[in-house]
Inverse folding.
């Protein structure tokens, strides 16, 4: 059983069904019936008017937004372990035309307002130093921690005060919300988020992510940037259909709950081994190389992380017997 | 019945089946079993070792290649009606970091060696003028004309002599080959093509295109650029599976033949109206606005093109009665 | 005697004097006493509040402005023989992050409102085609023609109507004004020009050009871009001093008049040979290769231009006997 | 008396003389007699064949080189206080098209091979993380420390082993060499440096710096990039003349010695206050705000640095009485 990444899981059967159902002629690009329903569906979900643009990867979702929020000659503040810094091959620099990432520390890949403020204050207000234009946060974080609405709001307020935009990488936003039970509006636009990458691929989707723009006036620029970056697919209906299938009856939230439950089962097997609180669907455990080998010997696959740590990521489809066996194996170490 | 674009057609049922069959856990990105078969499958097809990288759009396929073939400070020679110039929102400039397109004339969107030579000769060999690095051609062209192997080879030879790379936008390469019956190797690498965008989306695919690199050493750079541009999908198997399904038993060629046959049916209905010879699956007809309205009145949709011209694009799935009705309607104008 | 380019002429003695006079310690970059006088000096000259930023080349002046006026994903309309297209090594693409130049025809490198309108109208208003953001004109043009105030105003009005910015490459603006005697305000901001590259290097300067921003709010962005492009010199006073010396007592206008007078002397020697009216300080003549060789044999240097044409450019310091000799030699051909 | 920066000092009288002497017509750009002497002059100085290209700023010198040494999709390793990171407005990102700076720690802004190795080892060798392409060091550093030849050679060897280029920001290379007396070849190309920004502006020049390419094959690309970035001045002779004047009879070394001597005078006045060893022409002192105010009250100007620290930078022209007064004032604190 593999716990490498929720990226590797299959798509939910309803997603496959939706794709098959969308398999008929319609207008190309995003002019089809499915794509045209996205703005409305997400505006309903968020309780405010939004623009919703499908893309195929989280990198595209993040960087198209960031390019519109941060000019080429300014900077984005983010955690030093943020996905945009560590795992997107420099995409923010590419999409923005050279904008800089200013890297911040913070436990569990969360950043705090004080850290942002200090970083901003260290920058001389002159033309020699790159001035910040945006903050980017990941929720849930790369270490499986969750920002509560109040935490996002504190960053949102700081952003407003300092004239910065606030972007959220929500590759695992579903898991974050499933964890806290908080309202999706409270964690996003009511907290000051300007643009959100709403992740579906790690949560039962096949290859559809969604850029949600709470500042709807950004859409005109971003649809152009999407095309220019080769991200305007010819047959958008197959992306939109996936997203709509996952939105229907809150399937996205059910999937996230299932993944979180699986993570909880692993986390509670050995709470003293947890590197971080397991708040979403990622479990980081302190295990020796021998212990890791022992687990692998029983057929469980996962990544080594920092020295003496392993990472287990659970998916929407992981449950039942094999999971129980892994939990037991961890407990028995 | 709609003849706007082959972009709008549904995916072939075998593509949908292949996607469903690929719907199980595998390694993320392009490490899965399907993606790992691509190099071999295309090397067999082309009869030479190639690297084959899936992407989701022709724009990405073209521009990732061009960015590797043309430094930011040089230029790409292409027809003034080439897709990269007219319909990709400036993507070559974005992917390359500012490379220039030098626009050439040529009947039916084909370019000839002499035109390329003249354009090159007009450029002073100094630092003030942008020096060319690559030629890009589209086969079949934006007007449905087909480059024969000998024509490509003439451009390939010229490219080699002048130190230029040769890239082919093969969004409709299948239609070109179905038209001439020529060998795929003869029209590409044996003719000097360095990189090919092999189109599947217009030909029965859902959202998978393929970059074919005959200069395999380019792959290392392009896989990095693909990731950096947000084009490395998390679950690559759903793209690779589409491509493999279309390669199997030459389904791609069957689809192209079907589309070409449909185009022929329309073209032969009124040969005197043809703006260009209908060599692939695009038919440009001279019709008056009244005639166009008349056709639309009978339920046929298509684009107006230049003044007094309409464009009809046929797809792999268009045949039988409605097509016959359109042909008759055209003949009856 | 050399007539290759006004780029090659020496600096005016007063420029050298001003540099020597500025040779003492002052604040670095543009914080010195000379640089701080520029905004005021040019605001006086133009009769409106402007921001004035020194740079060292016309390419930098043009492209810093254009990058602020045209986002990376849009286009600049210019003549196909404009300096930004033909002689700046693709700098507009570099500074803007990939913006496109849309090339227009027009006699003598001038563009007309109708040509701009037609080019704009040909662009579909969708995300597939690059939308224009700015017009760039050169005054005097690359062929020595001069835009009158009314001509610029017609373009300015068109620009306003279509939501485009208007930038003027004024590498030889001095020669244009010396030619027509028109008011500098009428030819620039009153005619709708947003940003001007005011040339000094071809007109008695050593290495100082000036970006003039009539939309002063652009300055904040452009000063950052200037630094980021390596164009914020450490000791700006040596640039500002040159400019101030040339502004003093209208030395810039005197220099331009001298160069124009020299050009007139050559043009009137053989009016039937003129390729373009010699309105500023460039004279294009129809001469056979033998005739060109004959002139060169008498010690005159110049560039061959198109087949059967030569270009003679005069400078602020060319007058007297050698010039008379050349005029006579031309007349005697 | 001002100790803000060596950037603010006047040019050496011989530089002014050289400019005046160059004030006659010659070929434009870098085709003049002075510019054509640079390759030879620097090849003699370095004892190996080099290409030498004038530019007007250190930012341009650094970033033109780095853009040729590091593709847009890779990274440059440098100290977190390096000028390219802290004081060039993100220029490396601009010139390279989005390359990343990987920031390293190190006492006094020097970086050590072990630090570079560790940073490289932390990067996964996959497409998700940005791979390094070059190391950039500053000599003398931003804190006035000097790399000895053996230290550079250790970095050079590491660079070679790891397939990285090595670039040196030598804005104060003259001061470094004046400090150690080491051979200029030993500290640069013999130690593995591929490209050097040789600073003249801080050392008696007016506005000329020089890119020195030990890998001469890089020149063809960099001359194009120089033009494209607006850094090919029309009248290059005025830059080349400055550089030649400073090279003559080792004036550059005399100037650097004078500045270093001035710094020594200040450093020895209060050795216990030194934040860093004063190895070149920068002196960082621990002084309280009251003490700083006291010094300023006596007419001395300088920057506050970190809390409780001030920075004093000496220039080639600072000597004699006022300097002795400052030294005495520091000693008397």
């Amino acid at each position: 059983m593999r716990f490498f990444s929720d990226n590797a899981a299959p798509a939910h059967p309803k997603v496959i069904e939706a794709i098959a159902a969308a398999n008929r002629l319609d207008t190309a690009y995003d002019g089809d019936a499915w794509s045209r329903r996205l703005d409305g569906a997400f505006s309903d979900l968020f309780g405010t008017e939004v623009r919703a643009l499908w893309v195929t990867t989280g990198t595209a979702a993040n960087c198209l937004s960031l390019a519109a929020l941060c000019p080429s000659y300014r900077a984005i503040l983010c955690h030093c372990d943020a996905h945009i810094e560590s795992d997107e091959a420099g995409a923010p620099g590419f999409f923005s035309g050279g904008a800089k990432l200013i890297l911040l520390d913070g436990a569990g890949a969360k950043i705090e307002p004080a850290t942002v403020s200090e970083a901003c204050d260290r920058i001389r207000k002159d033309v020699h130093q790159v001035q910040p234009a945006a903050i980017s946060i990941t929720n849930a974080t790369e270490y499986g921690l969750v920002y509560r609405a109040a935490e996002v709001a504190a960053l949102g307020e700081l952003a407003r005060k300092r004239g910065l935009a606030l972007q959220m990488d929500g590759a695992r936003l579903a898991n974050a919300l499933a964890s806290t039970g908080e309202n999706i509006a409270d964690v996003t636009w009511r907290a000051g988020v300007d643009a959100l990458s709403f992740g579906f691929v790690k949560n039962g989707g096949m290859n559809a992510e969604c850029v949600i723009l709470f500042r709807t006036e950004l859409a005109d620029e971003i649809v152009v940037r999407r095309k220019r970056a080769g991200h305007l697919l010819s047959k958008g209906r197959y992306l939109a259909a996936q997203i709509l299938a996952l939105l229907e009856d809150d399937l996205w939230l059910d999937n996230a709950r299932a993944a979180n439950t699986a993570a909880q089962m692993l986390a509670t097997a050995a709470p003293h081994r947890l590197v971080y609180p397991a708040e979403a669907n990622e479990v980081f455990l302190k295990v020796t190389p021998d212990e890791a080998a022992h687990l692998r010997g029983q057929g469980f696959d996962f990544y080594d992380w920092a020295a003496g740590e392993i990472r287990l990521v659970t998916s929407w489809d992981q449950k039942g017997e094999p999971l129980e066996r892994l939990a037991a194996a961890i407990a028995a170490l």
